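Hi, here's the filled form for the chain we discussed.

Project: internal
Contact: R.S.
Residues: 144
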Amino acid sequence: MEYKLNFELVPDSCWYSNLRSILSPEQWNIVRKDAYARAGGKCMICGAPSNRLEAHERWSYNEDTATQKLEAVIAVCPACHAVIHIGRTSLKGNEKAASEHFMKVNGCGYADYRKALGKANEDHRRRNGIAEWKLDLTWLKRFT
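And the returned structure, exactly as it came back:
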């Protein structure tokens, strides 16, 4: 089933390899402020108005070519961001609120939440079998 709000588990070897660590602070500000402007003060996933949006990098993973590709940078509310990064959220002890937000945004029940989380974990385990991912940042060309 396709959901509006999904878990986006990053392969372990890609942790700490985000745009903030690759771009200069000035470049990152341009990218994140573009996302905020496109969002118009609302979460780009759930649509809730928020005066504290967070920039989130959307990645795709081509396992055949071992390529991690930047698809977009979007502005999301803290509640959606907590769901997206459920592993970190769980470690902080906030999984209950995140699961409730997932179900509310997606209009589904707890069994659906657990099934989607199981699928995300399965994808994560499989992608962890790839030792090194190539990085595709062609999405950033829109800023040059």
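Let me know if anything looks off before we file it.
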